[in-house]
Amino acid sequence: MEILHHKIIIVGGGTGGIAVAARLARGGETDIAIIEPSRRHFYQPLWTLVGAGVVQKEASVRDQGQLIPDGVRWIKDSVRELVPEGNYLLTGAAKIGYDFLVLAPGIQFNWEAIRGLKEAVRRDNVSTNYVFDLAPKTWTMIENFKGGTALFHMPGAPVKCPGAPQKIMYLAADRFRRKGLRGANVIYGSGTASIYGIADYATVLNKVVERYGIDTRFNHELVEVRPERNEAVFVLRNQPDSPRTTIPYDILHVVPPQGAPDFVRQSSLADPQKPIEGWVKLDKFTMRSPGFPNVFALGDVANTPNAKTGASAYKQAPVVARNLMRAIAGKEPDARYEGYVACPIVTGYGRMLLCEFDYSLKPAPTIPFINTFKERYDMWLLKRYGLPWLYWNVIVKGRSMPFANAPEPAAASPQAALDHRA
After folding, report:
1. Annotated catalytic residue: which of 89, 161, 379, 416?
2. Catalytic annotation on 355?
3. What confidence tens digit (pLDDT) does each residue in 26-35 have?
4. Which of 18, 64, 115, 416 sits most deeply, having the most CB atoms within 10 A of its CB?
């Protein structure tokens, strides 16, 4: 087994990991390594529009090597074990020591947690926009739908981009109407208690549900799919012994059960508290581990009490970068993540509601001069064109939007500070 050491190890080459690496490199750090097995980097929010037939899946992918910041080593391997007590980790081929660790490995799909789900998605009438290669099948499924029941599943447990299941549902319902399908019965089988957790946005979305005539089944957890019968079985949330409800479907969009990667969940960095056990335990403001001050985390793997979205990782990245560099300098963290979440909910072709809020669970709009508390065509254009451009040209390069007011990492030297501000 190869023995390696780097000052800073970043686990994960997704949104959070790449953005932190870019900020640290611009701040003057020269000994950084990213551990990421995938050769491809995905802009996953675009998969909703792939599933709706608006864009091709290839528009959502770039070569990972093109995004790794200059001077940062890319270790093309997977982490098998974290040993924070010894300041090292194990991959398939190496033991890698570190002075500081940043965890941004994303989320793990646990297909087996729902009986029959893995077999179901192999069928032509079951799909999910959470998988790159399956999102085009969602569009084929919607476009070929001739009537009957279109069932859209949303779990009650944490998932990345929790707005995604209802986005594709609204787009499907809109498409059915445009095609003149009078026999379309759209059902939302959701483990959540309401259409949205923020009242101001729920008011708007409830009207969208009413407009499309969607049958909402809240507090319903999917526990089994019977693909040979085209049936989905639900139980009441937190009541596993409650009577089961079986819903026949003609097409079904599902969300795979999700959790922290096994190597995180099985480590001493994981939060043991229910219902968030397994995620990296952090101070929700500084993004630093309370038990291991040289460890930071961000993105989907963090136990922060907010929705797991790309916008969250974007806002967390400058906080992690700055606080990590202060830790290197022997200083206490001074940057804070206030729980910002952005969830662009497409409510139809040419319509979008931009939901933004923070730990207070109150709206926190960031775009000046625009009323984002209603469905808008310009927000649809933001989703279709603006956000993808910002992702590839600003976010993964670790830069801030003009109105973001994000903290910058403290530079390692005066010259680095000049270079960083250039």
Report:
1. 161
2. no
3. 999 999 999 9
4. 18
Give the tens place of pLDDT for each residue, 253-306: 999 999 999 999 999 999 998 666 799 999 999 999 999 999 999 999 999 999
Q: Domain 2-107+260-340+383-395+407-421 is classified in which CATH homologous superfamily?
A: FAD/NAD(P)-binding domain (3.50.50.60)
Catalytic residue, chosen from 22, 117, 343, 346, is 343
**Catalytic status, residue 343:** yes
Confidence (pTM): 0.92
